[in-house]
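Q: Got a minute? One more chain.
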Amino acid sequence: MPIREIYRFPSRVLKQKAKAVGEINGELAGFLNDLVDTMYAADGIGLAAPQVGVLQRVIVVDTDHENRGRKLMKVINPRVLESEGSITKEEGCLSVVNYTAEITRPSKILLHGWTVDHKEIELELEDLAAVCIQHEIDHLNGKLFIDHISRLKRELYRKRLKKMSKEDGAAATGSPPAI
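A: Always. Here it is, folded:
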């Protein structure tokens, strides 16, 4: 399956809301396989369709880094029905380069969605799996984890990103990096 390009902040596609999937078919199954391959190639534990420029409500998650595929979830039209508790974890994102932040989210969720086999599912998830699912659902709603941090920290990241971009451009042209 082809590896897709992962869009990076501040790409506009990352701020758009994804539309619900109406029909589960072979094309969608192939796309989900592309998402899985792209997530693994990027060494991630979750990926949402908008991150590769497709505005559909589908996500893939695999929180078992040691045994890829063992905890793999492909979820169509995911929704959190219930949540409880609180957990703070350091989050990163394949669409937010070189940045992590402590984010507080519910520690337990009840996830509803559909599988590629047309099966309706409800899963109780907690800790890392719950955090990862919520992070990916945020992508479907046009939100990034950095939308959960202060505006000041977000602006500092944006400035650092511009600086990194200038330095990469200078390295590509053979010029010394800006100091």
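A: The chain has two domains: 12-148, 150-179.
Q: Perfect, thanks.
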